[in-house]
Design the sequence.
């Protein structure tokens, strides 16, 4: 992490401390689903102890998006229809929605930010499954994508004037947002996101991935490569909006393990289903 002045460190610590906790139930679900021996009934037991999550999962499975012929009335049935991975991703998505502020700040649309983060998570998981399955856990790559930009949420809520200025500089000059943030605030969203992930008690590999996702000079890791390529694909194709404009020089700095971006996108196939999944999860997660 960059060397911070005592005053900036105090402000960042205070801002991160004011962010809501990440739900324990979701942490438990993540831990359980890491095991290939995760039993659906145990997963259901955790979810059913969280009435808000239960309600939202039932809304999803019974929504027009899935169009099931019969109404689903239990979490157990939802797991059967949607599968453990989808249920886990829903739980993470709903947790992220619950932590977001109700309104954005100038130049930072919360709902488009959320769509970007959810889609980056899905694409990072796809990349890990296709290119790095033996090296990176697809579930970890999804979490990294979902949470990689959460430092921007901290800035938007607690350092809004400075963040608005950084967003404006990035938009007007085509400068990378993390560079503009460092110039204006003294630190970028990746460093602040890592502080937040550590507060939420995520593993050090995930904390490091969030902190380093704009650090091009560091030794690459499979999860970091999946995150960086997924972020680039989603910004290039305008899947949501992270407040960070796409720059045409970026492809030259993308991870080497995948080959060129166009070849990767072609190999992944039609991504519209993943974007629509993210849109549906975000919409239902924000309800009620």
Sequence:
């Amino acid at each position: 992490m960059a060397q911070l002045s005592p005053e900036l460190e105090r402000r960042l610590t205070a801002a991160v401390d004011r962010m809501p906790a990440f739900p324990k139930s979701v942490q438990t679900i993540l831990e359980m689903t890491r095991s290939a021996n995760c039993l659906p009934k145990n997963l259901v037991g955790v979810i059913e102890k969280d009435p808000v999550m239960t309600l939202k999962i039932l809304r999803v499975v019974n929504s027009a998006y899935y169009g099931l012929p019969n109404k689903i009335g239990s979490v157990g049935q939802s797991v059967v229809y949607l599968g453990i991975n989808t249920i886990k991703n829903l739980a993470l998505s709903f947790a992220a929605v619950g932590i977001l502020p109700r309104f954005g700040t100038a130049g930072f649309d919360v709902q488009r930010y959320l769509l970007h983060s959810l889609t980056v998570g899905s694409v990072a998981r796809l990349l890990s499954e296709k290119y790095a399955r033996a090296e990176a856990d697809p579930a970890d790559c999804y979490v990294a994508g979902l949470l990689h930009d959460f430092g921007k949420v901290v800035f938007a809520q607690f350092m809004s004037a400075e963040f608005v200025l950084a967003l404006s500089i990035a938009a007007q000059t085509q400068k990378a947002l993390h560079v503009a943030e460092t110039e204006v605030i003294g630190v970028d969203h990746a460093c602040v996101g890592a502080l937040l992930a550590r507060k939420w008690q995520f593993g050090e590999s995930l904390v490091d991935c969030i902190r380093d996702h704009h650090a091009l000079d560091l030794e690459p890791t499979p999860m970091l490569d999946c995150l960086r390529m997924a972020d680039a694909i989603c910004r290039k194709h305008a899947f949501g909006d992270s407040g960070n404009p796409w720059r045409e020089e970026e492809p030259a700095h993308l991870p080497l393990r995948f080959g060129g971006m166009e070849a990767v996108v072609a190999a992944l196939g039609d991504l519209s289903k993943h974007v629509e999944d993210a849109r549906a999860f975000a919409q239902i997660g924000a309800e009620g």
